[in-house]
Structures are given as structure tokens and as C-alpha cells.
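Notes on consecutive records. When two proteins share a document, each keeps its own sequence and its own C-alpha cell line. Never mix them. Below: protein one.
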Amino acid sequence: MNKTTAQALGEAIRAARRAEGLSQETLAALGGISERTLRDIETGRGSPSLRAVIAVSAVLGLTVRACP
């Protein structure tokens, strides 16, 4: 089974968060989003806003690119 883009993105964010030694609570606070939204992003579930994804990515020094 292939991973969805949302799942792959979530795994990358989770790995970066762990590599930085941040808890979900801390990253959510730094990104200005709820812990629930962060969990949704990390698991590739729910419908988090693009703003939320970009916010936590920016805290981690990650870049989000749109591909056609």
C-alpha cells in the first residue's frame, strides 16, 4: 500500500520534531495550533489547514512545496 502525501508529510514532521527533542505539546504551542491538530498532521488524518502545516513546518525549519 502506498502512503498518501498527507501520511508522508506527517511522518516527516514527526521525525523532525523528535530529532529536535520537542514534545507535541511544545511544537503545537510554538506553531500556534492545538495538540489535536498536530496529531492530525502527524498521522495524516483529519483536515488540518495549510496554514497549520506551514506553521509547524516553519518552526522545524522545513519547507512545504506544492507540486502539480
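Protein two starts on the next line and is unrelated to protein one.
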Amino acid sequence: MLLNKIEGYQVLILPNDKVKDSELLLGMLFETHFDYVLSFGQRPNVKDKVHIETTARDCEVCLDTVFDCERLRLLFEQNGIPAKLSHNAGTSFCNKLYWNGLKYITEHELKTKMVFIHVPFGRNISDIELFKNRIFETIRIFMQN
């Protein structure tokens, strides 16, 4: 629902498969130069706010994003979306995708900055269109500066 009818961005909808999701992301990173990669996943116990993930983990090893998460958090707040910096991208699909993306970017010395943003399940968003508009307005402002 969040990415439905979004214009002006290259969108990749993933099949929710741990292996294929990463393969598709890494394939795009290999084929195309991106300044930014913003990944979205759902967090079940969140309502009308976002969690901006700063870190991906593989066992005890951590990879931190170089994306300006604090600036993004402030912009979300200024655009009416409560936002929290989180240092735990989860233990499954979201974390695995984030880890593989950050690892690829690091290993290939790409200038790409990646961030993972957890959003609520649709049922936990009071007004989906307003929420979606605020998310993409925040991203638009972030990318202008």
C-alpha cells in the first residue's frame, strides 16, 4: 500500500523470500548506481510511526549505515510522523535484507547510502494516504538537501 502509485522513484517490490529478496536487491545495486536505497518493512507493534534502523546484524557482527538517520528522523517528526532510531532491524527478513545490502555496498565501496525503515502494518495506520504522503514528502525534502 505504501509504494502503490509512487512516482519519481525506482521501486522494487520484493517477494518476501529471504534469499530472493537479497538477490534482487544486490542485482539492482550491481546494475544501477543509486545515491540512496530506502528499504521498507513492517513492524507489527508500531502504530502511526516509523522506526529508522541504524544497524544490521549477522550473529555478533554489526554493520551500521552511513545514511544520516538522525536528519531523517527529524524530518519525519517535522512532517507529522513520529520517528524513532532503532538499532535492531529484527531477526529475520528485514535484518537479512539490510545486512546483505549494507555488506554489498561496503565490500564494493559504493557511494550508495542505504537505510531500512520499519512502518506499521496497514491496520495500525490511522490514515494510510496521509501517512504515505507524509513519508514521501519527507523523503523528497531529504533528497533535496
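For the record: The two ends are 27 Å apart (CA to CA).
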